[in-house]
Design goal:
Structural class: alpha/beta
Radius of gyration: 21 Å
Number of domains: 2
Helix content: 10-25%
Distance between the termini: 32 Å
CATH architecture of the largest domain: 3-Layer(bba) Sandwich
Number of strands: 21
Strand content: 25-35%
Largest sheet: 7 strands, mixed
Length: about 400
């Protein structure tokens, strides 16, 4: 096994593989290693559709070996610690691997443990989550067996990957209940640790209309902290306008949980993290994606400190900026490319309905199509269910989109 790479990439997800593929398309002679322990690669954006019974879970996974660029080395290992002053990462099995340049793209960590009683009961008693390959099918099982009562959908008070995902499954559930004639006998509740339904007013306005259409009850500044599986009770920490906290209990027949999220612990506890930040994001320049303290290190994707929506669409815009800036640095040239904070959230609002939200760092719309994307459209549903999965496997991971 090699002990040194010209460019070492940490993470074999969307960000790491996109960057690797684009670098090699620019210069096939580059010596690139990709560190990632996973044997399987997942297309996670479709898990919402899986939870809504509208997508086959088996179509969301492929062998990692099929996704690694041909001219890159795959180091099947986990990073334990970093020594950025020595340009070294320490792996659990391979030991020290050195680099000239490092790209940090490990993805985001699901902090199930921050909700008491969640991890040990996930996948039972109506407690479900679309955030893993293993648990997403149980969401549809729970929803399809629901005959009435109370369905709760939660959103934590931390940044999360795909910020609209907690809502998308809720709208699919409400539409399913409507189609089955169960709307009158089922309460649908949205409990969010945040203060608004969506950060961009143009899209928030239409989402509030969707909420009214389905009769969903919203509860903002309510953060899930505990689940009692036996009594089917969820416990929330609620904050009032004065910032005073209280605990509120709510029974459920089904609860879809979006777990709190943060940078992986090995990032959080490393010199690469933003100082004194409890969520441990990689300390990046939001424009150039270069590390703020270690100039031969760059970052891409969900673990970065850049204040954008953590979405695959953001990675698609970050990757070419990072690639161009890294190659410029290697040639001792100025870093002239800047990421504008673009993010996209295909907001599923029911079966066959989707609002395509696109926006920048300032939460200003940045729409692609020559029509009002704040309108629910079947064409955008087809984009989500047909076009984007194909684009991911065939273009994005290969560095051509």
């Amino acid at each position: 096994m090699k002990k040194h790479y010209q460019i070492l990439i940490l993470g074999g997800g969307n960000a790491g593989l996109s960057v690797a593929a684009q670098l090699l398309r620019k210069d096939p002679r580059l010596d690139i290693g990709i560190i990632d322990p996973s044997e399987r690669h997942y297309y996670q954006p479709a898990w919402t559709l899986v939870g809504g019974g509208a997508f086959d879970i088996k179509k969301t996974v492929r062998k990692q070996s099929e996704c690694i660029p041909d001219k890159a080395d795959w180091v099947r290992d986990e990073v334990d610690t970093f020594s950025p002053d020595q340009n070294v990462v320490h792996c659990k099995t391979a030991g020290n691997i050195s680099y000239d340049y490092l790209v940090v793209a490990p993805g985001i960590q699901l902090d199930w443990h921050k909700v008491k009683g969640l991890s040990e009961h996930l996948g039972t008693k109506g407690i479900c989550s679309n955030y893993t390959y293993q648990s997403a099918p149980y969401t549809w099982q729970s929803l399809s067996q629901l005959k009435g009562g109370r369905a709760i959908f939660t959103n934590p008070n931390t940044p999360i990957k795909c910020g609209g995902a907690p809502q998308k499954i809720m709208y699919l559930a409400a539409d399913h209940l409507r189609k089955k004639g169960l709307s009158d006998s089922t309460e649908v509740h949205f409990y969010s640790g945040g203060g608004v339904i969506f950060g961009v007013k143009k899209y928030a306005d239409v989402l509030n209309g969707v909420i009214d259409r389905y009769g969903i009850e919203t509860h903002f500044n309510h953060n899930l902290v505990e689940i009692d599986a036996e009594s089917r009770t969820a416990v929330f920490e609620a904050k009032n306008a004065a910032g005073e906290a209280s605990r509120i209990e709510q029974g459920f027949d089904m609860i879809h949980v979006t777990p709190p999220q943060s940078a992986p612990d090995f990032i959080k506890n490393s010199p690469l993290a933003v100082a004194d930040n409890p969520l441990g994001w990689v300390d990046l320049n939001k424009d150039t994606l270069q590390h703020n303290r270690f100039k031969n290190i760059f970052g891409c994707g969900d673990a970065g400190s850049t204040p954008n929506a953590k979405t695959g669409a953001a990675i698609r815009k970050q990757a070419p900026v990072l690639v161009d800036n890294l190659l410029s640095l290697m040639k001792n040239k100025a870093l002239n490319q800047a990421y504008n904070g673009y993010g996209s959230c295909p907001l599923v609002t029911g079966y066959g309905k989707l609002v395509l939200a696109e926006f920048d760092y300032n939460n200003e719309p940045m729409e692609t199509f020559p029509f009002n994307q704040a309108k629910e459209r079947y064409s955008m549903w087809l984009l989500k269910t047909k076009v984007l999965p194909w684009l991911y496997w065939n273009k994005i991971l290969k560095g051509t989109a």
